[in-house]
Amino acid sequence: MEIIIQPDIPAASRIGARLIARQIRRRPDSVLGLATGNSPVPLYAELARMHREEGLDFARVRTFNLDEFIGLSPDHPASYHTFMKTHLFDLINVPVSGIHIPDGMASDVERTCRAYEEEIRACGGIDLQVLGVGSDGHIGFNEPTSSLASRTRIKTLTDRTRRDNAAGFGKPEDVPYHVITMGIGTIMESRGCLLLAFGRKKAKAVAAAAEGPITAMVPASILQMHPRAVMLLDEEAAAELTRADYYRWVYNHKPDWQNF
Ligand code: GLP
């Protein structure tokens, strides 16, 4: 795992955006896996700026989002459909036909999940998956004890995750209990993973994921088994890493990485 520690969120987000831009320039019909939450917001803003000012072209890009709340219509203000439109899709030229987000209103959830997996496969798999991490170490909405081999399916949120995600809802009680999420096995099949984590609240989960044992209790720890996983951190999220100096040295002595 590459662990990149930056002084602040804007610096880390610029590196993340440059990685994604490099992927799109190399392969204009790239398949991106996308995440919601606060962590990728500055990265999406930087991608939108690159589209506006540098002509970064999303015309042939396909996207798959990690997850969605069950029971929220796409135009619900707290849905991940709305989030993605606001923070990215309305600001770039990705065609609507290339966008995939799990359908929170699906009547047959199991069939919808199977179809989502099939659509990912039909697009040739995900080239680069953006991830955040929950304060309990979850990725997507794969809560602790999720099978490390899981596929897209329904999950039940913990109270902690429901509290962490309450901001977009009127009251914390309004946060749905159920979600559709790509599985950990699905995420692991992407050809690259880019996990963003910022702030002191993430420091424990980051240290457990990067330096602890691989365990379903910390779903993000499975990224240790991924051949191309990058963790982009600010100093606060890196605060509990025992090898932070080593990771900084490695990054600062990699001319390759300085070309972003
Ligand atoms: C939710 C999302 C995750 C996201 C996590 C962290 O659980 N389903 O994909 O990584 O929140 O969110 P934030 O970046 O706001 O801390």
Strand order of the largest sheet: 1-10-9-6-2-3-5
Helical proportion, percent range: 25-40%
What does the largest sheet look like? Answer: 7 strands, parallel
Please report the number of helical segments: 8
Q: What is the CATH architecture term?
A: 3-Layer(aba) Sandwich
Count of domains: 1
CATH topology: Rossmann fold
Quaternary state of this entry equals: single chain
The H/E string reads EHEHEEHEHEEHEHEHEH
Distinct ligands, ions and cofactors found in the model: 2-amino-2-deoxy-6-O-phosphono-alpha-D-glucopyranose
What gap, in angstroms, lies between the N and C termini?
A: 18 Å
**DSSP, total strands:** 10
Question: What low-confidence regions span 5 or more consecutive residues with pLDDT below 50?
Answer: none
Radius of gyration: 17 Å
